[in-house]
Amino acid sequence: MEKQPLLTVRNLRTYFYTEDGVVKAVDGVDFEVYEGETLGIVGESGSGKSVTSLTILRLLDPRGKIEEGSEIIFNGKNLLALSDDEMRRIRGNEIAMIFQEPMVALNPVFTIGEQIMEAILLHQDVDKKTAREMAIDMLKKVGIPEPQKRVDEYPHELSGGMRQRAMIAMALSCRPKLLIADEPTTALDVTIQAQILELMKELQKEYGMAIILITHDVGVIAENADRVVVMYGGKVMETSDVKTIFKKPKHPYTWGLLTSIPRLDVEQERLYSIPGMVPDPLHFPQGCRFNTRCEFREEKCSLEMPPLTEVEPGHLTRCFFYKKLDEAQKLLKAGEGA
Amino acid sequence: MSENVTTTKMNTEFKRMFRKIMRNPSAVLGFSLLIFFIIVAIFAPFIAKPLNPMMLDDDGNPMKLDNPYIMPIITWSSEPVPPSAEHPFGMIQGRDIFYGVVWGTRTAFFIGLMVTILSTIFGIIIGSIAGYYGGWIDEILMRITDVFMSIPFLLAAMVLTTILGNGLDKVMIAMTVFGWMGAARLIRANILSVKEEQFVLAAKALGVKDFFIITKHVLPNTIFPVLIQASMRMGSLVITAAGLSFLGLGAPLGYADWGSMLNFTRNWILGTSGSAFTYWYAVFYPGMAMVLFVLAWNLVGDALRDVFDPRLK
Asked: Residue A336's pLDDT is what?
């Protein structure tokens, strides 16, 4: 039996109408998230991954518009058809979000206890005393020592890792079905990063929630995601389960991303980097958006946009010439072996 | 237990602020002056008894004044009378300057507080709506603010007072109507920067309503500059009110108000020929009260900024 996805995003297009023109930040994105799984969305800055997450919660600033024909189905409900009030009841309650910078994502003038309580009081019918108990409980759960004391501290009294833990406590206080984590560890030390990701994994198991993990860090994806969506220029370039994508990338961009990670097991003289720059979202190149930086580019690439093609069950890529990439990889492997 | 935690927390916070204030001499001066004025205002009936020595009741005791803010006439001398033991600040226009300065403190506080509070509240409402919602709402509200700002404050207040009629209440209305723009602009500018902060987005992501986002998450982070500005304006408003009273637009004749007392001195300000300072007391005491009052508020405003502004912590 096919599992029913918790969240289905279909043909999502979010455009920003600025004075310089229309910025197509997200331009036709499809993916689904199943219950209890972690979907990693990876891409460079400007690829539209953050806008995608904000669009799901409908938190765009007024210049951003979700275009006609976009669909976001969460738990059987079309989020784009809900009223503002109904949407507010979903935010924080069924879909929660944690942010990149724990330094600035907490309000400096309230204690962390007050901020967690705010979330609880908003969505659950409990009195203040119970909410406080629940807040302390949540702090304990996210591994903050002495939660009884910490609950009355202000954000500036906590370290970065502690603050991110407090953010997670806030986001999870209403046991959401889906947690959107937008670069949750980018601003943290590497050791703290691992702890936070570990914590998220544990809580995911306990609560059975799904996570959308947005990051530019391929390593984070490799360790934490079940399935991966690779975004570039507002479009999905490749999507697959995490093992396949790391073993056999079928898109030159994914391959470029993977090759540009430093490796300890192979001696490299110079680290590979994808040539060129992320295209300006005001002027995307004609045809495939990656064609200006692609090493396998042919004339066709700059004329039409390749469709998402299924190369094997569950593995889609937006490339005409993924077979060429296969061969190149084979050659490279052989070279490495020699 | 939680109560205890909060109170001790409040105490340490309070102690920290207190220490900070005590370390700064100008803040100490400001607060001492302000406390002095507050004491004078509160105990005015004991410092300068509201009695009329010219009107005696059946037992030969001076009668109580119907309205203590109207200074009683206690001498028929048309010239100012120099300070004496009985009238330490002297007399002018038949009235005791000491009495006027003491009761004028209450008037000053009343005018300052009322106008500041009303105009600040009005400014905060306009400014936060404009800043938070942006777009055409912002555009309309800010253009209205610009129109109000383009009219010179003193002139506008004078014209409006003349239209409304004389009286302290009219002066206060006029000063409120033309005094809210600073607060509105300041709060709008602050909101524009705070609303881009991630914690506002985080609050939205939790499903907090717009109203609570403004009042709970945005305003507390923007309010301090406005409060500091308000406390600084407090002093200058008293000067403006005094200016209007001096021009004869504010308080009625004989009202215990520093400005109208200066109005009395108009004919005597230059002294007599050959000695300019003959009537120095007529100008000095009400003027000094005003200067110290303004100074107190300015120093307090500075001290508040140092202590409260979370970014300077």
From this structure: 65
- Answer yes or no: do A132 and B2 touch at CB < 8 A: yes
Tell me what ipTM this predicted complex has: 0.77
pLDDT tens by residue, A71-116:
999 988 898 888 888 898 898 889 999 888 777 888 888 888 998 9
pLDDT 10s digits, B140-174: 999 999 999 999 888 888 888 889 887 888 888 99
Q: Say how far apart CA A262 and CA B102 lie, in whole Å.
A: 79
**Distance, CA of A88 to CA of B214 (rounded, Å):** 16
| Chain B residues near residue A131 by CB distance under 8 angstroms | none
Best interface-test mutation with B: which of A109, A136, A182 has the largest number of B CBs within 10 A? A109
| Mode of pairing for the β-strands spanning A7-18 and A71-74 | antiparallel
Rounded to a whole number, what is the distance in Å from the CA of A262 to chain B's nearest CA? 32
Question: Which of B185, B188, B192 is closest to B148 using CA atoms?
Answer: B185
Q: Where do runs of H (alpha helix) occur along B64-134?
A: 97-133
Question: Per residue in B233-245, pLDDT tens?
Answer: 888 888 888 888 8
A298: confidence class by pLDDT, cuts 50, 70, 90: confident
CB A53 within 8 A of CB A180: yes
| CB within 8 Å: B310 and A109 | yes
CB contact under 8 A, A92 and B205: yes
The count of CB pairs under 8 A between chains A and B is 71
How much helix, strand and coil, in percent to the nearest 5, is found in chain B? 70, 5, 25
